[in-house]
């Protein structure tokens, strides 16, 4: 398959050769590309052809024994790359009208008014002699006659240009003259598109336009972009993207070498290993049906020796995510204004010049093969995104290949966090079961006394409210006491300490896992320099000279930043006050609801009034939390836009801080109140100060005699589980409803209903994930991590519910990304960003929180003090009576006395350590037992915190951040770098003058039409020859600002 021959503009009319159907305007690859690398040398057509047809079926390895080490030289595995069909031989091809170099186009459909293609015929051969791939031959006259036939219909599932060979790497969407009227704004946009697309051609991209007549609504253009192999390789070298090499060295040392007896294992060990292998087999997918992860050593491709790398097909040599990333970098650097230094696709998207920019999914999710090519999207759906695959491990290598490192790192973190939850889920379940089976043991004497009719049935409790509330017996709190014991038992303290160690271990192990992923995915040298946001450049009116680049740039003065931060800080403080007001309203609702149940409810409601009140108050609080979350997320975006951060990283950091601060207060404030403040303001039943106003009525909000831990448990369970269920339902329905509505709108605008949608039209209908696609996912998991660690002493089953949720969450997120959303922008990141610091901060707060929950919320300390100091038998017999204080009902005012049920006892009991009414000097004052308990609680908090922080600190020190095997590999690389420095030093010095001259040229020219700018101008490199015949070592030489030489070996 070769291209249509060029049409001479002197003797042929382009309009006469154009088919009746609106063609796709193909921009040829003849234009001289302006690429950032100056050191790559073009390959000859012969060498390219030989390398492209190089056989990779030889899968051999040679072993050379050296002392106790085994050096294995591997060749490429023929099954290393997933696609099996050759795209050039299996793909269906369709033809399109081709406008060769030197032809002037005036079609507004392609580039706007009066676009003239650059004439590069002097520098490149004509189109007929420039095949798409080097192994192609020119076409003859007979083929020319065939091209005169009408253009066939395009395959709606195709991922290629109409020639069936060049793969679509990006799609730009725009509309021009609506209703045939060109406004001044649209004229400016057309000019920007014209300049922008000309610069894309100079950068080496190839373009193909689908006219609006071919679109679903007759007014939308789809501009398809393709990056050729040569440009792809040169940009990949600059961006440090690597290809798998054919041969590499691995060094393995056998621990039992020289001691064969050490290899013998006990039979029990063999059985254990068989069980582990069976579990691993169950956990992994069937490699006979689905491809397994390829194992390659990767290095940077300089473009001059393709035979060094595993390149079965140029379309698949670089992953889809890498191709998308390279094209996006070109789009970000291309200028769109000939007279001003304005560049970048983001600006054009912000001002409406282009409506969208996205990468195509690889065919339908349920279609396994397209034109002989196995589709990654189908594989991801089959072995990852389906709910039935919940017990299988995640194919991180395939996720990274398809979505990029940022998305893969999120799922790696989520999967690692989910695996780590197995241990606390099991331990928490065991603690809960201990409470169930020890309900009748001696540890639960207080609950037995409450439920005993002879003890709890004879103790009269004071009313919970004035007049309408009646006197109750202690025995009515039997249900609460049993519920409290399930979570407030001796195992609770152990579980709180265990969770503190678990949280620290989780973070340290994740650091190790992240270090391995960064090394495996080549993320050590991710570009750190960022360009300003388009919104920042277009809204800021003040400028300065950048001290680094010496270029004029937009600048926001310090006083302007301070004013903006002060305004947004005031709004954040106001929203936090709104949340606290909502918590106060919930408390008043709870107090009022208790009065309603006791005043007008039946016997059943009166008996279970406290449980109903706690559950309904928690549900109301959950509804308020979800409503405030939706409101604040919109406000947070508005506030961050008002701050106008310079870079996208600063934007995301500011947004993350504001959202997490608000959500922390929003979700945890009610739990903090119940756990640490409820009942602390209560003095005694007849306190007149508590009746001054509705606000002071909070002092009457007291815990049940069985304790506050049961209410914390109910509140935590409802908020945590309810939030998870609500978010999962939203994640399922929201994209489906969004896509349904968008598709419905497109169907209504479609003129030809019989024509099937093309793949770019189908993807255009999907929900756009946006640049903050993973923010909500991280936020949800970090808030869950807070529920699991901060208040786990009150609800040991929280890790179990979190584990069940995360198993479903992984598949829901995968399902949403594979089926319901557009393909997100591929990005390379070194870590999970600001969330790592937030997780560490939550871990430290969790230690303090659990210490206070055990000391002040649970009855562990009061029971221990009573058993050691006050009990004559050193047990808990009589503890309930000692934890209650007496009040004389004659001290009630007339407007406080209860007139319900006709009960008028002389005294009643209430929870607290206070003196009785007969105390000679301080009636109803704090008793000595209160101060004993207070001192013990404070001592426990101090000891708990210091011991846990000390032990977790030792654990963090003992667990290295980098695994030993990875440290050994890094040390080996440093050794190779040092050897390369000595052996290649002379050749490197010869290249330094060329590099310095290029740097001077880049610095003097600044940012010129499509050339390298910023850090790009400083990243020229040279890949030298190998050290020996068995290993290829690339030496990268860079000159730093202080004059020192930097050597990098890959």
TrEMBL record:
Presence of keyword Cell membrane: yes
Basic and acidic residues bias: start-end ranges: 67-78
Domain named Anoctamin dimerisation: residues: 160-396
Database matches in InterPro entries: Anoct_dimer (IPR032394), Anoctamin (IPR007632), Anoctamin_TM (IPR049452)
Transmembrane segments: 407-437, 491-510, 565-591, 611-632, 655-676, 782-804, 938-959
Any GO molecular function: protein dimerization activity
One annotated Gene Ontology cellular component of this protein: plasma membrane
Composition skew (Polar residues), residue ranges: 1-13, 31-42, 49-63
Pfam families membership: Anoct_dimer, Anoctamin
PANTHER family linked: ANOCTAMIN
Protein name per Swiss-Prot or TrEMBL: Anoctamin
Organism encoding this protein: Dufourea novaeangliae
Lineage summary: Eukaryota, Metazoa, Ecdysozoa, Arthropoda, Hexapoda
């Amino acid at each position: 398959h070769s291209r249509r021959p060029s049409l001479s503009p002197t003797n042929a009319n382009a309009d006469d050769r154009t088919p009746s159907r609106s063609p796709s305007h193909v921009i040829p690859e003849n234009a001289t590309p302006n690429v950032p690398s100056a050191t790559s040398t073009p390959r000859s057509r012969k060498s390219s052809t030989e390398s492209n047809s190089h056989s990779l079926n030889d899968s051999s390895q040679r072993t050379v024994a050296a002392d106790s080490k085994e050096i294995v030289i591997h060749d490429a595995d023929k099954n290393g790359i997933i696609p099996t069909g050759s795209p050039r031989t299996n793909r269906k091809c369709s033809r399109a009208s081709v406008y060769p170099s030197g032809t002037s186009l005036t079609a507004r459909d392609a580039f706007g008014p009066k676009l003239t293609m650059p004439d590069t015929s002097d520098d490149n051969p004509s189109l007929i002699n420039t095949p798409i791939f080097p192994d192609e031959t020119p076409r003859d006259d007979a083929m020319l006659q065939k091209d005169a036939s009408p253009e066939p219909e395009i395959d709606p599932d195709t991922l290629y240009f109409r020639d069936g060979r060049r793969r679509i790497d990006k799609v730009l969407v725009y509309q021009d003259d609506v209703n045939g009227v060109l406004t001044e704004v649209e004229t400016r946009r057309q000019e920007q598109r014209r300049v922008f697309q000309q610069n894309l051609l100079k950068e080496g991209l190839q373009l193909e336009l689908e006219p609006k007549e071919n679109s679903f609504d007759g007014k939308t253009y789809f501009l398809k972009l393709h990056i050729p192999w040569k440009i792809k390789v040169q940009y990949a070298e600059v961006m440090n993207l690597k290809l798998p090499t054919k041969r590499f060295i691995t060094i393995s040392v056998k621990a039992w070498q020289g001691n064969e007896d050490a290899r013998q294992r006990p039979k029990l060990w063999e059985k254990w290993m068989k069980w582990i292998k069976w579990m691993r087999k169950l956990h992994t997918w069937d490699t006979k049906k689905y491809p397994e992860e390829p194992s390659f050593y990767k290095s940077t491709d300089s473009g001059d020796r393709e035979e060094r790398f595993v390149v079965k097909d140029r379309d698949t040599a670089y992953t889809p995510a890498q191709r998308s990333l390279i094209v996006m970098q070109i789009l970000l650097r291309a200028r769109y204004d000939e007279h001003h230094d304005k560049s970048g696709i983001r600006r054009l998207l912000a001002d409406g010049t282009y409506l969208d920019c996205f990468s195509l999914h690889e065919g339908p999710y349920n279609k396994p093969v397209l034109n002989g090519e196995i589709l990654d999207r189908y594989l991801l759906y089959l072995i990852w995104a389906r709910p039935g695959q919940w017990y299988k491990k995640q194919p991180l290598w395939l996720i990274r290949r398809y979505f990029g490192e940022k998305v893969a790192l999120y799922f790696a973190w989520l999967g690692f966090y989910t695996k780590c939850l197995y241990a606390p889920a099991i331990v928490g379940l065991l603690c809960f079961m201990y409470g169930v089976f020890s309900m009748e043991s001696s540890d639960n004497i207080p609950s037995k006394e409450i439920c005993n009719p002879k003890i709890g049935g004879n103790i009269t409790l004071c009313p919970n409210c004035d007049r309408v509330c009646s006197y109750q017996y202690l025995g009515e709190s039997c249900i609460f006491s049993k519920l409290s014991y399930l979570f407030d038992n001796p195992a609770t303290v152990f579980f709180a300490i265990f969770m503190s160690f678990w949280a620290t271990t989780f973070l340290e192990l994740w650091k190790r896992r992240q270090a391995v992923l960064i090394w495996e995915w080549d993320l050590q040298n991710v570009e750190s320099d960022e360009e300003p946001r388009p919104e920042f450049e277009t809204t800021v009116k003040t400028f300065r000279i950048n001290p680094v680049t010496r270029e004029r740039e937009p600048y926001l003065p310090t006083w302007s930043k301070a004013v903006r931060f002060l305004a947004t800080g005031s709004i954040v403080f106001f929203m936090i006050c709104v949340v606290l007001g909502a918590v106060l309203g919930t408390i008043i609702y709870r107090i009022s609801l208790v009065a309603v149940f006791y005043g007008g409810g039946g016997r059943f409601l009166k008996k279970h009034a406290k449980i109903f009140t706690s559950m309904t108050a928690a549900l109301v609080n959950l509804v308020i939390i979800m409503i405030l979350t939706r409101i604040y997320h919109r406000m947070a975006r508005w506030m961050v836009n008002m701050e106008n951060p310079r870079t996208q990283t600063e934007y995301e950091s500011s947004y993350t801080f504001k959202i997490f601060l608000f959500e922390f207060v929003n979700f945890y404030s009610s739990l903090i109140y119940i756990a640490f403040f409820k009942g602390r303001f209560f003095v005694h039943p007849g306190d007149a100060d508590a009746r001054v106003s509705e606000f002071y009525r909070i002092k009457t909000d007291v815990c049940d005699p069985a304790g506050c831990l049961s209410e914390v448990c109910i509140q935590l369970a409802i908020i945590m589980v309810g939030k998870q269920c609500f978010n999962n339902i939203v994640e399922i329905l929201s994209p489906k409803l969004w896509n349904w509505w968008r598709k419905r709108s497109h169907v209504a605008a479609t003129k030809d209903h019989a024509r099937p949608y093309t793949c770019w039209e189908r993807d255009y209908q999907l929900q756009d994930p946006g640049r903050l696609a993973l923010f909500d996912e991280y936020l949800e998991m970090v808030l869950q991590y807070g529920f699991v660690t901060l208040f786990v002493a009150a609800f040991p089953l929280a890790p179990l519910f979190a584990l069940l949720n995360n198993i479903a969450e992984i598949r829901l997120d995968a399902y949403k990304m594979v089926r319901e959303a557009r393909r997100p922008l591929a990005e390379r990141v070194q870590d999970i960003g600001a969330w790592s610091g937030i997780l560490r901060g939550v871990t430290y707060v969790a230690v303090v929180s659990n210490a206070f929950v055990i000391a002040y919320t649970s009855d562990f300390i009061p029971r221990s003090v009573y058993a050691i100091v006050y009990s004559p038998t050193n047990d808990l017999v009589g503890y309930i009576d000692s934890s209650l204080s007496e009040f004389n009902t004659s001290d009630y005012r007339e407007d406080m006395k209860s007139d319900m049920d006709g009960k008028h006892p002389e005294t009643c009991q209430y929870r607290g350590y206070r003196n009785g009414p007969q105390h000679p000097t301080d009636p109803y004052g704090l008793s000595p037992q209160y101060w004993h308990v207070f001192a013990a609680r404070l001592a426990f908090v101090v000891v708990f915190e210091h011991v846990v922080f000390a032990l977790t600190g030792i654990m963090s020190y003992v667990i290295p951040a980098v695994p030993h095997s990875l440290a050994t590999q890094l040390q080996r690389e440093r050794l190779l770098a040092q050897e390369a420095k000595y052996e290649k030093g002379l050749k490197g010095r010869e290249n330094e003058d060329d590099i310095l001259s290029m740097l001077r040229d880049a610095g003097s020219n600044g940012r010129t039409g499509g050339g390298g700018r910023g850090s790009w101008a400083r990243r020229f490199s040279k890949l030298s020859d190998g050290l020996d015949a068995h290993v290829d070592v690339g030496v990268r030489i860079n000159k730093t600002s202080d004059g020192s030489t930097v050597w990098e070996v890959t």
